[in-house]
């Protein structure tokens, strides 16, 4: 029995040594194309990337700055990311691979280049996962629904908005998803745990990809990009795993290691790795936590009018002196108004609205660019506002159609009533009486008593 096992080990060792020798012509040609393809996909070659890199205040960078660096993927066309960019990269890689083959007739193998290509892909995949992992671990990516979103009809929300809001009401689950991504990214930082990392990443990111397709999200190209990187890394050990797990044959690990002949190479490698971990793990993690505690990025930070947050029913609505009774078919009369905790007001009415179609994850520092609350949401018109406390003047600007601007005077005869009077974008005079609705929300009541407690809505 032992003789048979020893013979299998010797046969396996011989096969491994043979693999480490000359490559076939097809293997070399395929590698040349793959090398160029994955280098272009992984290494930032766009000058705009480095322009943004040097614009960052590295004495006090924001987590959004680091996220944008980590989110890089090559783009040759304006607009949202598409697979057409991949096609361009593939054409360049094929052309470059053919040219490389005509110039390199002597190489018998590319083991060293293959090793370094895997290093590049490992770190590129790691930073992509960690970047998304932290904004989930500290539940920022999908925040709690705003009051406006909670009072928007189900059918007026896009499929992707419903998915994001559903994830936002379970922050613990969102944190778990982030922890899985961070774990996968950290395992990629060590060569020996790369295969374990890919076995975590491929099904996890595959689920993200399918979710984007099913819910019409905007990250399906990027999530599939991460899957391809993970599959490339997994392919290195796939044959050995098959031999061990399926064929139950003795299998030798790949023991190729780069040789660093000079001191600067040895220590330079350690410095680069330490710098990577410091920026994309430690610094980014600290900054993301600070953002979670102080300035979540989806909703504006400018505070709204004090003690006004809530849902208001429109008791009276007059335009040019004519009072309009409530009608669900009326496209002019307002139905209800929401004052958010921040400087946003949303109005539900039957008037046609332009819907913000933003789908890709963006972290904006400026309130004006923070569009999560209105993205993928119909049925309501969203306005940012400024309020002159002394003159009680309220200026509303539509977040999606800036030409839609209202100038109103605000008064409060009591704590539950708001009176608005002024002009709309068409310079029609309007007068509105709002009554606050003492509405309870299911997820808030459950939080108070626990899932097994009793409550009434």
Automatic annotation (TrEMBL):
Keyword Transmembrane annotated: yes
Transmembrane segments: 83-101, 113-135, 173-189, 196-214, 220-236, 270-292
Keywords: Membrane, Transmembrane, Transmembrane helix
Protein name per Swiss-Prot or TrEMBL: DoxX family protein
């Amino acid at each position: 029995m032992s003789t048979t096992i020893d013979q299998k080990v010797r046969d396996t060792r011989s096969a491994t040594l043979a693999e480490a020798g000359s490559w076939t012509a097809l293997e070399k040609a395929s590698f040349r194309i793959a090398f160029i393809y994955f280098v272009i996909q992984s290494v930032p070659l766009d000058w705009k990337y480095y322009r943004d890199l040097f614009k960052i205040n590295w004495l006090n960078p924001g987590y959004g700055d680091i996220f944008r660096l980590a989110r890089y993927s090559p783009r040759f066309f304006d607009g949202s990311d598409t697979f057409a960019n991949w096609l361009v990269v593939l054409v360049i890689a094929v052309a470059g691979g053919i040219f490389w083959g005509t110039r390199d007739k002597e190489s018998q193998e590319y083991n060293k280049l293959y090793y370094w290509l895997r290093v590049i892909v490992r770190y590129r995949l790691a930073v992509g996962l960690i970047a998304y992992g932290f904004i989930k671990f500290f539940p920022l990516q999908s925040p709690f629904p705003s009051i406006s979103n909670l009072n928007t009809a189900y059918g007026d929300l896009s499929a992707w908005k419903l998915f994001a809001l559903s994830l936002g009401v379970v922050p613990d689950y969102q944190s778990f998803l982030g922890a899985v991504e961070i774990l996968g990214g950290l395992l990629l930082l060590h060569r020996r745990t790369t295969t374990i990392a890919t076995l975590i990443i491929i099904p996890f990111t595959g689920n993200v990809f399918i979710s984007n397709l099913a819910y019409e999200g905007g990250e399906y190209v990027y999530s599939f990009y991460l899957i391809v990187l993970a599959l490339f890394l997994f392919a290195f050990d796939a044959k050995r795993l098959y031999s061990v797990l399926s064929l139950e044959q003795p299998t030798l690990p790949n023991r190729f290691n780069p040789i660093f002949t000079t001191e600067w190479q040895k220590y330079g490698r350690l410095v680069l790795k330490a710098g990577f971990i410091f920026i994309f793990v430690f610094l980014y993690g600290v900054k993301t936590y600070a953002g979670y505690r102080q300035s979540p990025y989806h909703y504006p930070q400018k505070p709204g009018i004090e003690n006004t947050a809530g849902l208001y029913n429109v008791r009276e609505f007059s335009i040019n002196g004519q009072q309009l009774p409530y009608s669900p078919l009326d496209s002019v009369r307002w139905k209800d108004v929401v004052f958010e905790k921040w400087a946003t007001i949303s109005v539900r009415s039957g008037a046609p609205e332009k819907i913000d179609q933003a789908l890709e994850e963006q972290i904006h520092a400026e309130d004006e660019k923070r569009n999560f609350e209105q993205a993928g949401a119909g049925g309501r018109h969203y306005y940012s506002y400024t309020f002159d406390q002394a003159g009680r003047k309220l200026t509303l600007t539509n977040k999606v159609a800036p030409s839609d601007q209202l100038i109103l005077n605000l008064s409060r005869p009591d704590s539950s009533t708001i009176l608005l009077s002024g002009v709309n974008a068409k310079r029609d005079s309007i007068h509105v009486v709002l009554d606050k609705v003492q509405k309870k929300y299911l997820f808030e009541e459950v939080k108070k008593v626990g899932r097994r407690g009793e409550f009434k809505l």
